[in-house]
């Protein structure tokens, strides 16, 4: 059985080495780098399953590296941010990251989040069973089996998290879905008030891709 390939990029050698050790103990194949340029070469040559990126890197910040990944790939990205840098979390989610962790963190928690992201990513790529494999709503089409989405016949490049949110909202058309409900369905984790920022960032990114802004919204309606 082929092992999942995990990219770790962090210029703090102790953290990168420790995370790498924990992931390897869980039978993941780890590609570890201390700078972005070496990581980019790996991204171009290896078929990766997930990336863990530190925000602060010596040659290119983690946001730019995440954007580079999103130009070609849709596998999950987890960002590592410094304590108290809340704006980093929002920025990371806004440019396509799926999750974030604040330093210092417990390596076992990161391993658990890696596994959770991979389960969801593989679940959608494998085509989970649903009553209908294709959802069509007012020019928006979601193919659950192939994990693809089009809007007025134009393809939308969505991350796994964005696709999950849009799928849940479409399957609940006409019903208000709370941030808490979205968070629990997607992350399978306890909801806290601060988690609303996570949902808000992903919704904003979806609006930008769908050109569906608050002033003239057609698809994503906010109910206070």
Structural class: alpha/beta
Residue fraction in strands: 15-25%
**How many strand units?**
9
State the shape.
Answer: globular
Task: State Rg.
Answer: 17 Å
Arithmetic mean of pLDDT:
84
Number of helices: 8
Query: Helix amount, in percent?
Result: 40-55%
Distance between the termini: 48 Å
What order do the helices and strands follow? EHEHEHEHEHEEEEHHH
Q: Which runs of at least 5 residues are low in confidence (pLDDT < 50)?
A: 127-131
Strand numbers in spatial order across the main sheet: 2-1-3-4-5
The description of the largest β-sheet is: 5 strands, parallel
How would you portray this structure in words?
It is built from 8 helices and 9 strands. The protein is of the alpha/beta class and 224 residues long. It has a 5-stranded parallel β-sheet, with helices on both faces. The chain has a 4-stranded antiparallel β-sheet with strand order 6-7-8-9, with helices on one face.
């Amino acid at each position: 059985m082929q092992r999942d390939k995990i990219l770790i990029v962090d210029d703090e050698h102790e953290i990168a080495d420790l995370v790498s050790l924990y992931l390897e103990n869980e039978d993941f194949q780890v590609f570890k780098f201390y700078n972005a340029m070496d990581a980019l070469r790996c991204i171009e040559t290896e078929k990766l399953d997930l990336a863990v990126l530190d925000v602060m890197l010596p040659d290119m910040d983690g946001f730019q590296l995440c954007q580079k990944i999103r130009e070609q790939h849709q596998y999950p990205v987890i960002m590592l941010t410094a304590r108290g840098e809340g704006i980093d979390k929002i920025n990371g989610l806004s440019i396509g990251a799926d999750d974030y962790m604040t330093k210092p963190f417990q390596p076992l928690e990161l391993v658990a989040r890696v596994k959770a992201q991979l389960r969801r990513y593989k679940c959608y790529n494998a085509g989970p069973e649903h009553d209908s494999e294709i959802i069509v709503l007012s020019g928006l089409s979601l193919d659950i089996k192939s994990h693809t989405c089009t809007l007025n016949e134009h393809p939308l490049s969505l991350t796994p998290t964005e696709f999950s949110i849009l799928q849940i909202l479409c399957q609940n058309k006409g019903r208000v879905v709370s941030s808490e409900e979205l968070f629990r369905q997607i992350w399978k984790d306890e909801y806290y008030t601060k988690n609303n920022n996570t949902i808000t960032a992903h919704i904003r990114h979806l609006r930008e891709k769908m050109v569906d802004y608050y002033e003239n919204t057609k698809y994503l309606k906010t109910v206070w």
